[in-house]
Write a structure and sequence with these properties.
heterodimer, A: 152 residues, mainly alpha, Helicase, Ruva Protein, domain 3, 6 helices, B: 176 residues, alpha/beta, Glutaredoxin, five-stranded mixed sheet
Amino acid sequence: MIRALALLLVLLTATPAWTVEPDEILADPAQEARAREVGQELRCLVCQNQAIDDSNAPLARDLRILVRERIKAGDSNAQVMDFVVARYGDFVRLRPPMRAETYLLWFGPALILAIALSALLLALRRRKAASRTVPLDANERARLDKILGGEP
Amino acid sequence: MRRLLYILPVVLLGLVAVLAYLRLGKDPSILPSALIDRPAPEFALPPLLDGVPGLATADLKGQVALVNVFASWCAPCRVEHPVFLRLKEEGRVAIYGINYKDKPEDATAWLQRLGNPYTRIGADREGRAAIEWGVYGVPETFVIDREGRIRYRHVGPVQPRDLDEKILPLLRELQK
């Protein structure tokens, strides 16, 4: 039982498998934590769909070291991001910035959802209108009564 | 109105098809440079070879130049090498090299065997200058104008066709 609990504890507190190597880690834990925050935001340009913290490409390692140097030199997280973006462009951000040319990227899914929802609403309303029952008028009732043999 | 709704999916499909067609045959690993039309970055690299000076930002002002990032361990660099040798023979433009993360003895042997098209070579052993240039893989080639600004960047080996169709016309334009 205790062993199972211990295993559970270990599994629950396990951190993701970073690629950050021991010799890169900063002595100051607060600075290292900031470096990890930035490292998760930066794209490894060699593998393109990984953050530099998750990639073992040599360039990713160089960039991790660079991020740590900038942090040690007193840069804020935003300044470090700007430093890298100035050299590699917006593509290096894993989260694209909000700008006129990225509005479609940010709001596209919501736009498509809105179009789909309004189409659905329109279709539902139309179906409801089509299936609405219209009561028989006196003439029709008389004919129906006749067909059914005078039963009420 | 109803007919319009029926046509809509076809129109959407058409748009997607056009987008897909435009991306066809393009290499997604080729990224736009953040440095186009910006001044070349601040860097200073020591020489690689005896008798061939190193490379720094100040060397890029005053004439149109080509900066090629290369390494002896990089196979595509070998592919593009004859193109630079040809360009050197024509004497049209200054060709500078940044030797990326290479052992000096390997790079020296490589240049001795294949020929050296560069009039300046900076040895970037740690790859830090390459980061300043926004390089994410070798080879990469930059065209620098007289004011020392980056005007063009080529990712991957420069093939004879790239030279004739893109780089040479740009050089002529810049040298006017």
